[in-house]
Amino acid sequence: MEIKRRTQEERSAATREALITGARKLWGLRGYA
Organism's domain of life (predicted)? Predict the structure, then answer.
């Protein structure tokens, strides 16, 4: 269970980072940055 929990946390954290990075890239291209 601990391993699965750690994996889920890592996945959620990686997903958040990916979304933030993608959003920043889009904002930068659109000139919002």
Answer: Bacteria
pTM: 0.57
Task: Give the pLDDT confidence of 1-33 residue by residue, as tens digits.
Answer: 676 777 899 999 999 999 999 999 988 887 765
User: Is 33 in contact with 21 (CB distance < 8 Å)?
Assistant: no
Range 8-33 burial, b when 16+ CB lie within 10 A, else e:
eeeeeeeeeeeeeeeeeeeeeeeeee
Query: Tokens 């889920």 label which residue?
Result: 8
